[in-house]
Write a structure and sequence with these properties.
The strands form five sheets. This protein has a two-stranded antiparallel ribbon with strand order 1-2. A two-stranded parallel ribbon has the order 3-6. The protein contains eight helices and ten strands. Helices cover 47% and strands 12% of the residues.
Length: 238
């Protein structure tokens, strides 16, 4: 919001995945109706079985239990409390614990696979594999609302993943092993991912992203710039 002008985004699309956003059930129904009309006029058909709706919890308020039916092509949609969109797990309370746990499990699987299949490889090869498959931390740049416990659990898993890949003792020094291998530790990796997001947003030609990046005092840019600084960790106590 700026200069008395409020910009609302009602639709986010990528390939054949679409998300509709509305402040009310009535508004959502109107958006769905527009989609149905477009699909009918262009020979398209939405998959009702894969379509769901979620009501986000407003700050300081609980989600309503009784909600009028929301239908797509005459079929009532299922209400869910979490939904995975483009690999990122969204929840009704807008917290990131579930997505962080998803990434923690995925990291464990990748690290154990590398440790088993490449146990006899050289240290250099193992470090290269770890960097390639264990440091991406998919969608971590979007995490903004999480507890200190969730953050710590993921950091421990990241350290254990490196120990497993390198065949190191379970309780060896985390800072020492990363320094010896000249590889980014968990905090350094998270900072780089946040910086990468800021750089890509600022370089984008998309008008919405340009509006966001143009506000240096905006929440998203400020959050990424302050991410993982020791005295400014955006952690919550739940």
């Amino acid at each position: 919001m700026g200069g008395g002008l409020c910009t609302a985004m009602g639709c986010i699309s990528y390939a054949d995945d679409m998300v509709l956003l509305s402040a009310s059930v009535c508004g959502l129904r109107k958006l769905i109706r527009k989609c149905e009309e477009y699909a009918c006029g262009h020979g398209l058909l939405y998959n009702v079985r894969k379509s769901q709706y979620m009501i986000f919890e407003a700050a300081g308020a609980k989600c309503p239990d009784n909600v009028p039916k929301i239908k797509l092509n005459g079929v009532p949609l299922e209400r869910v409390k979490q939904f995975q969109y483009l690999g990122h797990l969204l929840t009704f309370d807008l917290r990131d614990h579930a997505d962080m746990d998803r990434e923690r499990r995925a990291l464990s699987v990748r690290a154990n696979m590398i440790a088993r299949r490449f146990a006899r490889c050289s240290k250099e090869v193992k470090v290269t594999l770890f960097r390639a498959f264990c440091t991406s931390l998919y969608s971590c740049s979007l995490w903004a609302n999480y507890s200190r416990k969730s953050y710590s659990v993921l950091r421990v898993q990241y350290n254990n993943a490196f120990r497993a890949v390198m065949g190191l003792p379970r309780f060896c020094s985390a800072s020492g092993m990363f320094a010896d291998a000249r590889t980014d530790c968990f905090n350094a990796t998270m900072r780089k991912r946040a910086a990468s997001l800021v750089r890509r947003v600022r370089a984008s030609s998309n008008t919405v992203l340009a509006m966001i990046s143009g506000r240096l005092d905006g929440y998203i840019i400020r959050h990424c710039c302050e991410r993982h600084v020791a005295d400014q960790l955006p952690l919550r106590k739940y």
